[in-house]
Amino acid sequence: MSLVDKSYFVLEELEERWQLPHRDLAYLAENGLLRLSVRLFGVQLEIGTYEEGTDGKRFTVAQERIRFTGFQDLQERDVFRIFRQGEAEVTYFHAPEDAYCRLIEPTRSVWVGRQDLLVRREERDRVEAQHRLVHKSSIAPAFLHQSNDFREVRIGGLAFNLGPVQARVVQRLHEAASTPAPWCEGKLILGEAGSASTRMADVFKSQPHWRRLIDSDGRGRYQLRLPQR
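The structure assignment produced for this chain is given below.
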């Protein structure tokens, strides 16, 4: 068991944690059920959308160009090539539908090998919850709320005294947790709770341990951390 609180993992760590053979982990990744990432350093990225012209052909519309260091998720086709061929030349990264994220000059592409594949903590937790790939150490502690307005909640040994907006967010996530779709769009939840901010981290910045209470999928969706049933 690792004593380091990691923000990302190599594939071998997940194989051991989930007790899955490599071929099953590869199947999840190649079919978009497990999103693999690569770490980039000082590359130039263009982020934009696809639009359709009057001739029916799609064209790109750049929204921003940034110098980027951090994690980007890979597309399934590149993951497939990496597992089959050992490496792949990557130009585009995974993006929402009708959007794109690509490398531009001076870095037009990067070569990604199997040794470069990583899984972010948020993605690991999302897959564990969705596919019930549960390791005993990952089971969340019990959740309790002391009042109907959710101003006082407790998870495991942690107690939270929440502000009105924070409490409404937690209440909405608690309601969603009992449905087949526990993941909620963060901006929508915050708007319904009456927040002027669109960032969950800003709303809960007064709660240093809020990530022990609320889980993120890394793509703007959130759910309450509840025990695995």
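Interim note for the steering committee: The chain is about 30% helix and 30% strand. The radius of gyration is 20 Å.
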